[in-house]
Amino acid sequence: MISIEQALEHVIQYAVPKPAQSVPLEKSLGHVLWEDIFSDLDAPPHDQSLVDGYAVRSTDFCPRAIRAQEGSGNVELEILEEVTAGNIPTCRVESGRTIRVMTGVHVPEGADAVVMLEDVLWQREAGLSLGVARFATREVVAGQNIMPQATSLHRGQRVLPSRKRVRPAEIALLAQVGRTDVRVFGRPQVALLPTGDELVDVGFLPGPGKIRNSNGPMLAACARQFGAEVLDLGIGRDDREPLRAVMAQGLSADVLVISGGVSAGTLDLVPEVLEDLGVRQVFHKVNLKPGKPLWFGVADGVQGDREAGGSTLVFGLPGNPVSSFVCFQLFVSMALRRLGGEDLREPVAPRPSARLARPFEVRGDRVTYAPARLDWTEAGAVLDPVVWHGSGDIRGLVDANALAIFPEGGGHYEPGERILYHPLD
Amino acid sequence: MISIEQALEHVIQYAVPKPAQSVPLEKSLGHVLWEDIFSDLDAPPHDQSLVDGYAVRSTDFCPRAIRAQEGSGNVELEILEEVTAGNIPTCRVESGRTIRVMTGVHVPEGADAVVMLEDVLWQREAGLSLGVARFATREVVAGQNIMPQATSLHRGQRVLPSRKRVRPAEIALLAQVGRTDVRVFGRPQVALLPTGDELVDVGFLPGPGKIRNSNGPMLAACARQFGAEVLDLGIGRDDREPLRAVMAQGLSADVLVISGGVSAGTLDLVPEVLEDLGVRQVFHKVNLKPGKPLWFGVADGVQGDREAGGSTLVFGLPGNPVSSFVCFQLFVSMALRRLGGEDLREPVAPRPSARLARPFEVRGDRVTYAPARLDWTEAGAVLDPVVWHGSGDIRGLVDANALAIFPEGGGHYEPGERILYHPLD
User: Most CB atoms within 10 A, among A302, A416, B61, B118?
Assistant: First the structure.
């Protein structure tokens, strides 16, 4: 029996990122960048107004300049032109003059500050086509409300590194630098095979000794959440030859996930049949509750039309649904993230923690992942293990949004103790 | 100018959940349940073994019973039969006898405990077809490794409430209770209209005064992240009649999201044209930085073939990409969640918080949402505002995985201060 960390190291070591593919920008969400992204422009492309307002010379607002003005003591400047979004200034701002500019517009030559629209009264005046701007403020400093050219991006700069997952912000940046298409890692394909003579399809009422196949739909949903494509192999029966045939089919995918048949029971054929198929066992059994019987192996070169370079990773998950779920969240998810291009070779980031809400008793020797409810309160994050009747109890899992992690050895935990957790939502 | 909380109340008040639709179980991921879900069975359907092992009478392990045995002092029991998954016991366990059972199997009559396989040596013995089980343990208590009938679910029980979002665990439970189809709230449709004469399509190099349309692809990705279907209306130009036509088209969706054209600038036509189209303004301007110019309105009865009951919600987001992004995350997302069926009428849950990583200066009067990097360290969650050059700077946003929330009034914040945040990933 190996530790969770050792098991993860094996999984990450054998998971080779998928080959690159080019996708249109709008299909890139959730993919991982295969290429570094460079900017083809400066942003902003010129000194730019950050507000709707008036481009001015700040020296027109120094005390001497203001004293030189007649009347109210407010600075008044003649408006030369108005520049709306998408257009560029045609005049230069000389002393005593201003240009009305919209947000994002090129700051006109001669101007070194922009005063917000709200601080200016626009007066029509005879003989002047655009009238006069009367400023309610005198506090104008050089550079105000101006974003200098290339503050955000400069041409040729690497703006996104490869291996970064594409979220809406990355899509905005890719659009900004003109990428209509982008090279990303492909999505992994996962073949799913729940096994067991006790399983009946969801649409049937289970007879004596039978249960419905809940692992199949659940694992498909887990795989989709991690961006994988799902190949549904149906239910595998505890019968060597048909099992061998359907498993061989599953080896055409990047990952074959089997549930059931990996404990020490009489009909737990899975490891044997996999060995027959040339799948090499990497580990069997992990110091984890629930999920101890986890089996992991690798098939080199047995796959048919798969792209060169990759092996098929094979996970034999325990048949109990919660064990199956926990093993997917901990191990299969990491394989999918790595196949999808994420760089997981760095030491895994520290886990989040929260205060335990109530006393909790951990039985058994293994590291325990207990379904729990994580809530934020005024006092911070609080973790409350849900009522849970063991690895067959799916009902407990639906109340959880985290797995509370208790170290090996079991024991008693007091409210307020800081507990690490694995978030689920 | 209203507060963020007031704005949210308005948005939630006007967002009416979509009508129910029936979807196959495998398509239900991410939807919100419209119906309560009841169990059609007990789970487990009978007292069930939690392990692969031997079903025994615990009284066979009491000290007197052990003394009565000859030889080593180990309890030895004759094996009556073996029951594999999917099958049911045919014999009763009498004293001195045991039945080998796999995980999930019905506990045979007469037995009241199961001993794990690992604690038992299986010996073949002449004259006995299945041989003898020799127990390495003497500690056997009534009920051990048995899950009593209906511990997890009982027939007729409400196992999932309506308004709950479907995750993989919910799919497992729906499968367990036989739901091949399930009634869920429909997905909202979002029409997207970035506006502005300065916008050019992503595939072009922007000329003087122009920028690429990054808001369109970004907002589409945001909408998809919240489970919406996207109707892309292209780029709206600052020209009243075409703008009116394309906005009218957008009002066929549940939500029309416009970006740009809502500030106080000369060509900010959006509010006027919307009013022409019968869209009633609910609010304009929110005490938020970035995002102050946010416009929100409702079109009652102007939509053509939409299902009865709903109005079209119209968001006019500021044109700057980061402002647009923040307004989507704060307001449009809540509308989509509510349209998708989530119950948001309860007081909003307390926000998470983290320690500030470094000194930070907040300028301006408004509540500020600053892009920040959230990391978990040994000492807990740490929030580090990213280098960010304002609402036009998308580059800053890609380094962030949270928005740090600073209250109105601005000021200086010290490292270690506890800061609320809005998670982004």
Answer: B61
- Residue B364 belongs to domain spanning: 353-423
pLDDT in tens, chain A (425 residues): 999 999 999 999 999 999 999 999 999 999 999 999 999 999 999 999 988 899 999 999 988 777 666 666 789 999 999 998 888 999 999 999 999 999 889 999 999 999 999 999 988 877 778 899 999 988 899 999 999 999 999 999 999 999 999 999 999 999 999 999 999 999 999 999 999 989 999 999 999 989 999 999 999 999 999 999 999 999 999 889 999 999 999 999 999 999 987 665 555 788 889 999 999 999 999 999 999 999 999 998 644 444 445 689 999 999 999 999 999 999 999 999 999 999 987 656 789 999 999 999 998 899 999 999 999 988 889 999 999 888 889 999 999 999 999 999 999 999 999 999 999 97
Does some domain include residue A205? Answer: yes
Which of A25, A151, A208 lies at the smallest CB-CB distance from B202? A25
Hey, which bits of A144-187 come out as E strands?
Answer: 146-147, 158-160, 181-185
Q: Do A221 and B29 touch (CB under 8 A)?
A: yes
Q: Answer yes or no: do B161 and B220 share one domain.
A: no
Q: DSSP labels for A323-367?
A: HHHHHIIIIIHHHHHHHTT----SPPPPPPEEEESS-EEE-SSSE
Residue B88 counted as domain residue: yes
Residue A224 tokens read as: 């989709």
Return the amino acid letter for A312: T
**CB of A65 less than 8 A from some CB of B:** no
CB atoms B209 and A351 under 8 Å:
no
Min Cα separation B56/chain A (Å): 17
A29 and A164 co-located in one domain: yes
In a domain? residue A347: no
The CATH number of the domain where A59 resides is what? 2.170.190.11
Whichever domain contains B400, its CATH number is 2.40.340.10
Q: Are residues B205 and B335 in the same domain?
A: yes
> Which of B25, B264, B267 comes nearest A117 by C-beta?
B264
Name the domain boundary from A121, A147, A173: A147
- If asked whether residues B295 and B413 sit together in one domain, one would say no
Contact predicate B256/B314, CB 8 Å: yes
CATH number of the domain that residue A302 is part of = 3.40.980.10
Residues A166 and A198 in one domain: no
Q: Decide if B346 is inside a domain.
A: no
Q: Which one of B214, B289, B366 makes the best mutation probe of the A interface by having the most chain A beta carbons within 10 Å?
A: B214
Across the interface, of A202, A220, A321, the residue whose CB is closest to B180 is A202
Whole-angstrom distance, CA of residue A290 vs CA of residue B158: 26
User: Are the Cβ atoms of B104 and A179 closer than 8 angstroms?
Assistant: no
Measured between beta carbons, the chain B residues lying within 8 angstroms of A171 are 214, 217-218, 220-221
Residues A205 and A299 in one domain: yes
- Angstrom distance (rounded) from CA B178 to CA A202: 5
pTM for this predicted structure: 0.93
- Cross-chain residue pair B218–A171, CB shorter than 8 Å: yes
Q: What are phi and psi of A309, to 5 degrees?
A: 100, -40
CATH number for the domain spanning B171: value is 3.90.105.10
Judge: B198–A104 Cβ closer than 8 Å, yes or no.
Answer: yes
Q: What is the pLDDT of residue A305?
A: 43
Q: Does B203 touch chain A (CB under 8 A)?
A: yes
How many folded domains does chain A comprise? 4
